Amino acid sequence: MDKNLKILPLIPLRGITIFPYMVIHFDVGREKSILALEEAMLVDQKIFLVSQKEAKVEEPEEEDIYTMGTICNIKQILKLPGDTVRVLVEGESRGRLEKYIEKSPFFKAEVEILEDDECDKTNKCEALVRSVRKAFDDYTKLSGSIPVETIVTLEELDNPGRLSDVISSYLMLKQENKQELLEAYDVEERLQKLLDILSNEVDILKLERKIGVKVKNKIDKVQKEYYLREQLKAIQEELGEEDEDKKEITRYKNRITKAKLPKLVKEKALYELDRLKNSGSYSAEGGVIRTYLDWILDLPWNAETKDNLDIKSARMVLEKEHYGLEDVKDRIIEYLAVKKMSNSLRGPILCLVGPPGVGKTSIARSIAHALNRNFVRMSLGGVRDEAEIRGHRKTYIGAIPGRIVYGMKQAKSKNPLFLLDEIDKMSNDFKGDPADALLEVLDAEQNSTFRDHYLELEFDLSKVLFITTANSLETIPRPLLDRMEVIEVSGYTSEEKFHIAKDHLLPKKLKEHEVKDNKIKISDSSLYFVIENYTRESGVRSLERKISSLIRKSIAEMIEKDKDKIIVNTNKVKSYLGPELFTYEKTDKEDKIGVVMGMAWTGYGGDTLPVEVTAMSGTGKLELTGQLGDVMKESARAGYSYVRANAKKYGIDEEFYKNKDIHIHVPEGAVPKDGPSAGVTMITAIISALSGKKVRHNVAMTGEITLTGRVLAIGGLKEKSLAAYRAGIDTVIIPKENEKDLSKIPKTIKSKLSFILADNIDTVLEQALVKID
Ligand code: ADP
User: Which keywords does UniProt give here (predicted)?
Assistant: First the structure.
């Protein structure tokens, strides 16, 4: 086959390779090249462009120039300042140099024009095309340097040879690679080469990116910090300052030396400090160590306050700050006396038990005050997990010490008064029983070496005076209860509340609101009025709130109406606090059949508890409705059995259990009541209903009963008596066994109530039932 030959001026190219279809401009400076260009312009604007093997060579010879090049069409020539010319060309086809015709004054050569063969659409070719497209796609995504329009035009190209040339022209490749692609005249071979090169490039790009991201992130963060720190160091050095890291270490070191730590603690602290030095202060580890060191250094390992053992002055403080609460005060004084004698405060832990608002917390605070000890309070309500008492191990992220150590830090001395509030509200779950941990805390034998999981050091708790509080004893774990001495703080009578209000709450609140010079006066009768009609509680918490409210309203009125004095009387109370909230349910004024007033004791204080029984013809059913807990249901059944067994004695039809239905009802009250002290009440009501004898309306009773009719002791006598008194009762029947508790009943109550002691149900019935003439 004849070669398609053509004689053309030739320009050797430095550093670029031109592919067919490629449009490109380049600058021409060498004289030889400019002459070649001019020649081309004179003939048909066609020129043969071939790359030099070495771009550096200024005057290339034959052997310095490749033989495969591109025949191009010159599109534009632009003269630039100096002797340079800018040429815009478009590749037409490959050309192979046959021989040089002239070498001077410019290169002229005979060139074989190599048009692409129409590629056979073989499967292989097609597969190659697809692979090339895919690889190019990856390449563009990774390199990000190829405009989107290009990719779109490529999609429309279906000539494989042309496709590969166009793609080749876009790639950023080494000169040899480009030349290799240009020399591949056979289309399949060209595609294969292109695919190899592309895949290789894609791999490199991927790797680059991977390294790039990693390195970049690392470099960004590390370098930034590094440079900033180095800068800081440099600045500090310039200023003659020590660098921050060193300063911090020195600071800790000073603190450790000054802190007078026990030997082991000091060793541990120094060990951690060493670790801090090595960990780099900005690492996460550094943060953990610093927190730990702060904890160690903030704990009162050795700081101690000096106890005030002057019993007289302690008594004075207690008396001054609290009204009543004689039991607690006496117990504290005993405590001090023992301590003074033996110089040891070991002994059972005090547990103050009583309804909310009776002053358990505030008396504990007073005790601390009287003893001259620091005071800390920690509520145990809702604590379920042992770690809350004893801390989390340091290996936990964000670990902190337990509440005991936390409290000790707040206490700032190793011998504070530590109040553990709501010890009855603790519970346990699968993470261990907090009560066990607490046992160790409270146990004088063990607590000198209390170990917190976080601290990993022993802390001496033996000088701490622990006092606990609870609303009721029932839910306190038994082993804990055994270690404590229970002091009951029962509710207050209206008189007591009045004194507390007048002598303590009112002055305290006036001071808090900064009211001076008797500008606000609350009369005694209005205090009573508030106690009776706006509060219904064993303690004085809501009374305290009402007093605050009265004071605030008075201040508002003084300012609004420009008054400089306000006297609060009962009318003012009504206008400030609104209509009365409670009016005590007074007892019926007449005696009734089957209705008996019982007395109950709840976590919130005492209350009265009417029990109603009716008997009607039926088949011997016993029905129980209303507010009856399980214990009271048992009492009702036991009472029923007792009456059945003793029917004759009380003149009741012995067959009643066959032909009478009995219905026992306890009306709903605000507070659910349950407890083992309604036995006598049930029996009395049943007998009254069955015998038709009336029950005296002014009598209330409490007591549990055995099946033989014996009356058993009850708890909360004071609370119950207060409730009966409030309800307008004048006679209360109580178990004989409770006689000893009468001494705890306030005189005012005792003078208004007559107490009847019963050891048998017969005594109860005799006193409660109205005799039928
Ligand atoms: P508790 O701990 O029993 O729930 P608090 O100690 O919180 O009760 O007492 C509530 C408020 O009543 C406090 O302001 C307290 O000072 C006051 N208070 C309670 N009892 C007395 C009392 N006997 N004498 C003086 N103030 C009291």
Answer: ATP-binding, Cytoplasm, Hydrolase, Nucleotide-binding, Protease, Serine protease, Stress response
Classify strands 566-568 and 592-593 as parallel, antiparallel or unpaired. Answer: unpaired
In a domain, 304, yes or no: no
- What secondary structure does DSSP assign to 501-568, as a single string? IIIIIHHHHHHHTT--TT-EEE-HHHHHHHHHHT---SSSHHHHHHHHHHHHHHHHHHHHTT-S-EEE
Overall number of domains in the chain: 6
Q: Is 490 in the pocket of ligand 1 (CB under 6 A)?
A: no
Contact call for residues 594 and 682 (beta carbons, < 8 A): no
- Rounded Cα gap, residues 18 and 165, in angstroms: 10
Assess whether the C-beta atom of 361 lies below 6 angstroms from ligand 1.
Answer: yes
What are 299's two structure tokens?
A: 């704990």
- The answer to whether the CB of 349 falls within 8 A of the CB of 467 is yes
Dihedral (CA of 501, 503, 506, 509) sign: negative
Which atom belonging to ligand 1 lies closest to the Cα atom of 321? 25
**Length of the chain (residues):** 773
Whether residue 462 lies in the annotated active site: no
Same domain as 95, residue 10:
yes
What is the C-alpha separation between 360 and 363, in angstroms, rounded? 5
Reported as a single tens digit per residue, the pLDDT across 216-252 is 676 677 667 777 777 777 777 777 666 677 888 889 9
Residue 720 is among the residues annotated as catalytic for this protein: yes
* Burial environment of residue 117 by CB neighbours within 10 A (0 to 12, 13 to 18, 19 or more): exposed
Please tell me whether residues 286 and 347 are part of one structural domain: no
Q: What is the pLDDT of residue 242?
A: 64
**Interval between CA 728 and ligand 1 midpoint (Å):** 27
> Is residue 190 assigned to a domain?
yes
Pairing of strands 107-114, 85-102: antiparallel
Q: How far apart are CA 97 and CA 112, in angstroms?
A: 6
Q: Helices (H) and strands (E) in the chain — how many of each?
A: 28, 26
Report d(CA 28, CA 1) in Å as an integer.
37
Distance CA 678, CA 263 (A): 62
- Are 745 and 693 contained in the same domain? yes
Residue numbers of the chain with a pLDDT score lower than 70: 1-2, 118-121, 215-216, 218-219, 222-223, 240-243, 280-283, 343-347, 397, 429-431, 583-588, 602-605, 668-676, 772-773
Gap between the Cα atoms of 380 and 383, Å rounded: 5
Same structural domain, 195 and 330: no
- The atom number, within ligand 1, closest to the CA of 421 reads 2
Where in the sequence is the domain holding 565, given as residue range(s)?
Answer: 494-577
